[in-house]
Amino acid sequence: MQHEAPTVDGGEALEVWIDQDLCTGDGICAQYAPEVFELDIDGLAYVKSADDELLQEVGATTRVPLPLLRDVADSAKECPGDCIHVRRVSDQVEVYGPDAP
Ligand code: SF4
């Protein structure tokens, strides 16, 4: 079965993760959406949980708060490392980021 083209209509739940292997540490994401992204002392960006905890496990995801979707999507588009991945929770299809269609 083929999936339809991803959309973000209807407030569908999204999650975001960062591939630190490609992160340049420029901090653009943390400027766009500091509630979601933060640079650690290693100079790389990580996502944060809803209660502001830095999530440092490889591939760690956090939910994208709907009011911040635009900022998170812009972060993925502007990320010079192409390493911010935003995907639907329901089917794991990437909607913003290097693997988005
Ligand atoms: S914008 Fe991308 S490359 Fe820059 S700090 Fe954030 S994740 Fe890393």
Describe, in plain words, how this protein is organized in 3D.
The chain is globular, with a radius of gyration of 13 Å. The strands form two sheets. It has a four-stranded antiparallel sheet with strand order 5-1-6-7. It starts with 13 loop residues before the first strand and ends in a 5-residue tail after the last strand. Mean pLDDT is about 90; it is low at about 1-5. About 15% of the residues lie in helices and about 25% in strands. The longest helix is centred in the C-terminal third of the chain and has 10 residues, at about 70-80. A hairpin with a 5-residue loop joins β6 (about 85-90) and β7. With about 100 residues, the protein is α+β, with helices and mostly antiparallel strands. The chain has one domain: Alpha-Beta Plaits, CATH 3.30.70. Iron/sulfur cluster (SF4) binds near residues 26, 28, 37 and 83.
Describe what is shown at a glance.
With 101 residues, this protein is an alpha+beta fold.
- CATH C-level class: Alpha Beta
**What overall form do the CA principal axes indicate?**
globular
Q: What gap, in angstroms, lies between the N and C termini? A: 17 Å
The helix-strand sequence is: EHEEEEHEE
Question: What small molecules does this complex bind?
Answer: iron/sulfur cluster
| CA gyration radius, whole angstroms | 13 Å
Sheet with the most strands: spatial strand order:
5-1-6-7
**Which class best fits the helix and strand makeup?**
alpha+beta
Strand content: 15-25%
How many structural domains does the protein architecture include? Answer: 1
CATH architectural category: 2-Layer Sandwich
Please state the average pLDDT score: 92
**In terms of per-residue confidence, which ranges show pLDDT below 50 for 5 or more consecutive residues?**
1-5
